[in-house]
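Repro:
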Amino acid sequence: MTPKEQILRFIQEAYADARQLDPSAKSTISGKHASKNEVIQELFDGMSTGTARIIIEREVSRQISEEFKISPLENKGRYYIAKIVRPDGGPIQRLLIDKQTGSVQMVGR
């Protein structure tokens, strides 16, 4: 199962559990009440930066994550861009994270 499939399954189960506890409750996005269609649209728009961070940590080797830092993510539409940087702040490599598929690609500096 891909990371995105895992995330979608988790979200679906969370909504199902919430409906079982209170069937009259509506879903919320950012603290606001949202219709089912709005929740589904948010899911199709892609992943959050938190989810992208989790995927990066799974994809990047332990050695890289221990020796170097991952810069804050930049939202570039369908993709997030992160940089692997040295402790002094110098860039080493850029990572491209596809919001729709969860794939991580290493691209130039």
